[in-house]
């Protein structure tokens, strides 16, 4: 008898997804390539490649709580890798005379159909849960605090995810709480998943709950004591048979993700330099020179990847002054020129940083780099500030589109910026980069309150 993992859509749907995706993949392959290749060998080859890539990219690891942006990111990553593999295959087999444009047409068609199927299945399952009450998980929570209250609200307010919450046990209720009462309730109500607030339980209680869950085939999950602002995305690894936990999992430490992001940075920055900066730079240069004497570009040392210093470039927006490397621009700053106000408001002053991106010092999207003097100051007083240097700094970032751009007026501003930067580092995807770039463009068009 086959045992299926709980918490998935169902044990069969993963196999059905594989079958349908491979049918789309091979059907389109025969349509595009059947005149050029041995059909049987080609089907075996691309099916094997697809399955291997899907295991690597975790393409079928979609859960009931997965967000649409994560699903879209998985689709783009899987099809991107598959496209590169197909292009490499055609390059190594020149006798087949498969043109790159044909491969691109094939992979785009595959992307559209598989993406359509994946999202259709995702929304049909949500509709099935809300309308018919199927494909659900029954939950109970042990421990009561802000986080468990938020989780309980999530279960109640999002029926499309298929959770039916039965009860939250308050560990502070000295008269009514005991683990035996919890265990009896969980067994009687056929609870599927148990959620525990770590901060509300002693070590001995945690061990008892683990033993109960293991012996009764219950899914057990823990809510960390997250009193600070930073997420803890732990990575579980084995050194031989020794389990080791890493504090955080950084997607951009993966060589494939590094290649994808670097390739995107090169292509995007090249397009901006060729089609925008090539004609805009002379215009901005003339306007800057007309208003004030001094260089067109402003160069400033910033801390980047691994805390390494680099020269960050901008269009000069201030009168030349000795304090430019020490103090940020403030509201009503007298150092800012008239043309400077305009290019700062529209973020045009940041455009020369696309050269930094092309040279490899920066990325299009990432944590914004600070002046060296400010970095040293914040590193001493703001917890987790240095985590931002695990990846390349960016021209724009998640913090900037979330209300934390510009001047740091209070510690709350820099704490908020660090919070969003760490979330970005731990949850990077190419689709998230696209979202940040799009939102940055909209903010530049509308103008931002703190863009001064």
UniProtKB/TrEMBL annotation:
One of its GO terms (cellular component) is membrane. GO terms for molecular function: undecaprenyl-phosphate glucose phosphotransferase activity. It is found in: Membrane. Its EC number is 2.7.8.31. InterPro entries: Bact_transf (IPR003362), EPS_sugar_tfrase (IPR017475), Undecaprenyl-P_gluc_Ptfrase (IPR017473). It is a multi-pass membrane protein. Signal peptide: none annotated. This is Undecaprenyl-phosphate glucose phosphotransferase. The keyword Aminoacyl-tRNA synthetase does not apply. It is an enzyme of class 2 (transferase). Residues 261-445 form the Bacterial sugar transferase domain. Keywords: Membrane, Transferase, Transmembrane, Transmembrane helix. Belongs to the bacterial sugar transferase family. The keyword Transmembrane applies. The chain crosses the membrane at residues 12-34, 40-59, 71-91, 103-125, 266-288. Its main location: membrane.
């Amino acid at each position: 008898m086959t045992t299926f993992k709980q918490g998935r859509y169902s044990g069969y749907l993963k196999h059905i997804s594989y079958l349908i995706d491979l049918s789309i993949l091979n059907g389109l392959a025969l349509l595009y390539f059947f005149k050029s290749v041995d059909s049987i060998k080609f089907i075996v080859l691309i099916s094997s490649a697809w399955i291997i890539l899907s295991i690597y990219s975790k393409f079928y690891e979609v859960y009931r709580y997965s967000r649409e942006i994560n699903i879209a990111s998985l689709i783009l990553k899987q099809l991107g890798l598959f496209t590169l593999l197909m292009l490499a295959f055609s390059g190594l087999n020149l006798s087949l005379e498969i043109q790159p444009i044909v491969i691109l047409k094939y992979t785009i068609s595959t992307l559209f159909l598989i993406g359509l199927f994946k999202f259709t299945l995702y929304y049909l399952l949500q509709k099935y849960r809300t309308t018919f009450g199927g494909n659900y998980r029954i939950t109970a929570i042990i421990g009561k605090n802000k986080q468990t209250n938020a989780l309980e609200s999530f279960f109640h307010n999002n029926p499309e995810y298929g959770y039916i919450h039965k009860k939250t046990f308050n560990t502070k209720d000295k008269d009514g709480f005991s683990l035996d009462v919890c265990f009896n309730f969980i067994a009687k109500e056929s609870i599927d998943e148990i959620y525990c607030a770590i901060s509300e339980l002693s070590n001995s209680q945690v061990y008892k709950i683990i033993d109960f869950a293991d012996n009764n085939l219950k899914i057990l999950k823990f809510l960390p004591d997250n009193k600070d602002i930073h997420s803890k995305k732990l990575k579980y690894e084995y050194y031989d048979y020794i389990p080791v936990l890493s504090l955080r999992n950084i997607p951009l430490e993966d060589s494939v993700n590094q290649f994808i992001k670097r390739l995107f940075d090169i292509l995007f920055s090249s397009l901006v330099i060729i089609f925008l900066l090539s004609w805009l730079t002379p215009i901005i240069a003339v306007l800057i020179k007309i208003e004030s004497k001094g260089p067109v570009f402003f160069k400033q040392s910033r801390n980047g990847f691994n805390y390494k210093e680099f020269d960050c470039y901008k269009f000069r927006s201030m009168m030349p002054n000795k304090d430019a490397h020490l103090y940020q621009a403030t509201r009503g700053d007298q150092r800012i020129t008239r043309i400077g106000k305009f290019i700062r408001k529209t973020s045009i002053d940041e455009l020369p940083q696309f050269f930094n991106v092309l040279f490899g010092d920066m990325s299009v999207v990432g944590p914004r780099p600070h002046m060296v003097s400010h970095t040293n100051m914040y590193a001493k007083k703001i917890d987790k500030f240095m985590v931002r240097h695990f990846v390349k700094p960016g021209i724009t970032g998640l913090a900037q589109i979330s209300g934390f751009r510009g001047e740091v007026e209070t510690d709350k501003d820099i704490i908020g910026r660090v919070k969003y930067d760490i979330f970005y580092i731990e949850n990077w995807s190419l689709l998230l980069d696209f979202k940040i770039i799009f939102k940055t463009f909209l903010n530049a068009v509308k103008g931002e309150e703190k863009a001064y």
